[in-house]
Write a structure and sequence with these properties.
By secondary structure, the chain is of the alpha/beta class. The chain is 36% helix and 15% strand. The N and C termini lie far apart (43 Å). Bound molecules: nicotinamide-adenine-dinucleotide.
Length: 253
């Protein structure tokens, strides 16, 4: 009988970069990668990310939309840990505004974080991974890459772009041993809506009840999917957008 996979150390010896790691899903991802053996650079514009500091978990306070941010973040991973094996493009922001009220600045701010910075980080990560002929990139997309609600046009478009970046880049780099996948995340109880509604976590917990599973996710449940996609266990997964949404996109209503 084949041995059971040694899940607790499934990314041992790997070096990972996680964006948006100060809170919510990104924090859970950084901590789980670290717990399962990876050395991690945890990047966020929020200085709270420094609270994650521990041996082999290096916080980086930076805004991923700034010129040169991708080069600096990947460069730090290579300088401190010798290489980069895993990139998780997790940082994301949302606004809720009808299209007719949305300014060009609103639109571009959302694309800059959710799509453009993910492209720049992925490009830089691939450059670091190419010499090793291996690597995994996991993009945190959303069910909004496929489904829409009024007022989320900028966010939904950015996550659609991220899903298509995932597929296209996956085709370009698989011949070099680099796998690119994404997760279509459903409702997760985090602070992402804090600037949009009065009680962001409460709103997400309530909204999640509409999913067939009857609840929103905990960030750790999404981190488990990231760990799988980032590990050798997902060796045949290329260009997938895996839904982790409690069945939200399966049901007809
Ligand atoms: N929570 C949900 O219901 C949900 C659903 C689908 C997808 N997602 C996606 O999950 C990802 C994580 O979101 P979350 O729910 O954990 O939210 P969150 O607000 O708790 O975490 C997002 C993190 O990204 C950081 N960030 C934002 N802009 C940044 C920038 N320019 N530079 C560096 N860091 C930046 C924030 O400081 C924050 O720590 C996002 O991409 C989001 O779109 C979340």
């Amino acid at each position: 009988m084949q041995d059971i996979n040694p899940i607790p150390q499934e990314v041992a010896g790997k070096v990972a970069l996680v964006t948006g790691a100060a809170s919510g899903i990104g924090k859970a991802i950084a901590l789980l990668l670290h717990a399962r053996g990876a050395r991690v650079v945890a990047e966020d514009r929020n200085p709270d990310v420094e609270q994650l500091a521990r041996p082999d978990l290096l916080p980086l306070v930076a805004d991923i939309t700034e010129d040169g941010a991708a080069e600096r973040a990947v460069g730090l991973a290579v300088e401190r840990f010798g290489r980069l094996d895993i990139l998780v493009n997790n940082a994301g922001i949302i606004i809720n505004k009808p299209v007719v009220e949305m300014t060009r600045e609103d639109w571009e701010r959302i694309q800059a974080v959710n799509a453009t910075a993910a492209f720049l980080d992925a490009r830089e990560a691939v450059r670091a991974m190419l010499p090793h002929r291996s690597g995994a990139i996991v993009n945190i997309a959303s069910y909004a890459a496929y489904f829409a609600f009024p007022t989320i046009a900028a966010y939904a478009a950015s996550k659609g772009a991220l899903a298509q970046l995932t597929r296209t880049l996956a085709l370009e780099v698989i011949e070099h041993g680099i796998r690119v996948n994404a997760i279509g995340v459903g409702d997760v109880v985090t602070n992402i809506l804090d600037e949009v509604v009065d009680d962001g976590p409460g709103f997400l917990a309530e909204h999640g009840k509409a999913a067939p599973i009857g609840r929103a996710a905990r960030p750790e449940e999404i981190a488990e999917v990231v760990l799988f996609l980032a590990s050798e266990r997902a060796s045949f997964m290329v260009g997938s957008v895996v839904m982790a949404d409690g069945g939200m996109t399966v049901t007809a209503g």
